[in-house]
Design a protein that fits this description.
about 130 residues, Immunoglobulin-like, 2 domains, three-stranded antiparallel sheet, about 35% strand, elongated
Length: about 130
């Protein structure tokens, strides 16, 4: 009979212990990404042509998570094709000049290096104001 043993330590926010599964010949580091976001994006009403920031702080996890992308109505927000959006280095989404078509449901997608992924609850963005037709 082989000798196997299992040790599992939960992540502790203060000591930063990592979950570990051990066998006689292998050690496995377990990846964890909690389900709740530290700060999910919040619904906002934005005046036409004004600036807004959608903030998102990903869930705690091991390895540490980051905001990988933003989605509007389920589609990826691509700042390379729409210069009205900027994703900051800390993962927040900046809307430079709110347009009527920027109204929608926004979610942020958090990922970690182990490939775990979580999607935030949606934030409803409503752009209001009079649109001038030229």
């Amino acid at each position: 009979m082989s000798n196997y043993f299992v040790k599992i330590w939960p992540i502790d926010d203060e000591t930063r212990q990592i979950p570990v599964f051990c066998t006689r010949t292998h050690i496995f580091l377990l990846s964890v990404l909690r389900p709740l976001f530290v700060t999910p994006p919040y619904s906002q009403q934005i005046e036409l042509s004004s600036q807004a920031v959608l903030r998102c702080h990903p869930p705690k996890g091991e390895p540490v998570a980051f905001v990988g992308e933003w989605r509007k109505d389920g589609a990826r927000v691509d700042q390379t094709t729409d210069a009205n959006f900027i994703k900051s280095s800390d993962g927040h989404l900046l809307i430079l000049q709110a347009r009527m078509e920027d109204s929608g449901n926004y979610t942020c997608v958090a990922r970690n290096a182990a490939g775990l992924e979580r999607t935030s609850p949606p934030a409803i963005v409503t752009v209001f104001g009079k649109q001038h037709i030229v």
